[in-house]
Amino acid sequence: CTWTIVQNDFATIAIATSFSSTETGYIAGGSSNLQPLLLYTTDGGNTLDNHGMNDSSVGAMLSIRMASSTWGIAGGLGFIELPCGAYTNDGSTWFNVDDGFTLFCAFQGASVVDDSQTGVLIGSFADRRDWKGNGIQITTDGGKTWNQINGDTGSTPVRYGSFLSKNMGYVTSGIWPETEDISERNIDSVMRDFQLTRHLTMDTTKQTVRFVKRENSRAEDAIEGYVALLSAVTNEGNDWKLLLNQTNQGLYFNEISCTDSNNCWAVLEGIDGFGNDTAVIYHTSDGWASYDTQLTVPGGSLVCIDMQSPTLGWAGGALLQGDFQGDFQGIFYKTTDGANWTLDSELKNFYPMDISVTGK
Fold it and tell me: Which of 78, 122, 127, 311 has its CB 3.0 to 4.6 Å from that of 109, i.e. a possible disulfide?
C-alpha cells in the first residue's frame, strides 16, 4: 500500500477518522484556537471542508464514527465550555451532545450503530452528577437524549468500545504505570495534559500531541501497574459484565472492532517480560469466552484497529524500538482472512491514532 499526504494546511491535530465510502468521510480533531474540527471530504481527502458544530464555536474531538453517510457521532475532550461530543443526523450538521455543565470529559472512544438511532461515547467525565464518572454516554433516539452510565471497571479508565446494537457491545479499559486511575485523577492536570496512550500526550491548551519516550525497566516487577480489562455491555448500556481481566501482566487495551457479537479483534500494548515495548492483537470467535493472540509486534505499539468484515481489516501503530531513524516509525498491518496479519507498510515519523477501512 502506498500512502500519500493529501492535506497538511490545517494548524490542527487530526486524531480520528471515519469513512462511509472510499471517497466520503470525516477527519476529526481540534485546532490551536480550540475550533472544533469535523473535516468532511468527498474526494478521498484531497479537499477538506470543516463543518464544525452548529451550536458551539469551540471544541476538540478525540473520536468519530459514521454508521452511514448521514448518522454519526464524535467524542470530545472537553472542559468548562468545551463540548463532550457531537452528533449528526444528516451527515453535515453537527450538534452538541449535552448542553449541561461539565467540568471535564474525555471520550476517546466512539461507536455507532447503523440504525440512525444508537450511538455510544466511551470515556471518563466529571460533572455535578458524578465527579468520578467512568463509562459511557449512550443515545438510542438519534442524539435527542443521552444517558450517562458508569461501568464496572472501578478506577481503571474505560478507553474504547464496539457496539453491535443498543443492547450488545464491548468496552475496553486500561491503565499503565505512568498514568493515574480515576480515583487519583487530578482534573487540573488532565485539563492541561491528557495521556492518550503511554507514549502520546495531548496538550489540551495548544491542541498538540507530543511523543513521550519511556525508559522501560528490566526488573522482574516491570510489568506491574498495567491493567487490561474487557467488558460486555448490554441492556442499553445499563448492564456490564467483566469478561477479561489482565492485571500486572504488562499490557493495556486500546481499540476494539467487532463484526458480530462473537467475532472481535482488539489491540493491546505495553512491555514484555524483558522490559521491551510490545503490542499484540487479540481475537475471539465466541464473545470473549476464549481468545487467541493473532499477532505480536516486538518493540512496537498498536493503537487502532478496524475490521470491515470478518476477513478484511487493518491495524496501525508505531515501532518504538528497532532499526529506523527518529523516535518512532508508523506501521500498518493488514489481514485478508481475519486470522493472519502481514506488515503492509511503514511511514517515517508517523504515529496513527485511528484508522477507517472501506471497500475490499
Answer: 122
Quick one: which of 288, 276, 287, 355 has its CA closest to 317? 355
Mind listing the pLDDT tens digit for each residue in 241-288? 999 999 999 999 999 999 999 999 999 999 998 889 999 999 999 999
- Backbone CA torsion sign across 277, 169, 119, 20: positive
Beta strands in 20-60, from DSSP E residues, in sequence order: 25-31, 36-41, 49-50
Cα(158)–Cα(184) distance, rounded to whole angstroms? 15
- Cα dihedral 250→160→155→318 (10° resolution): 30
Alpha helices per DSSP H over 129-239? 187-190
**CA 138 to CA 136: how far, in whole Å?**
6
Gyration radius (Cα) of the chain, Å: 19
Count, residues in the chain: 360
Note whether 73 and 143 are within 8 A (CB). Answer: yes
User: Which residues, 6+ apart, have CB-to-CB distance to 81 below 8 Å?
Assistant: 58
pLDDT digits (tens, 9 = 90+) for 68-97: 999 999 999 887 777 899 999 999 999 999
Contact between residue 111 and residue 154 where contact means Cβ atoms under 8 Å apart: no
Question: Cell 476464549 maps to which residue?
Answer: 290
Only one residue has cell 453535515, namely 92
Phi, psi of 17 (to 5 degrees): -150, 150
SS3 for 103?
A: strand
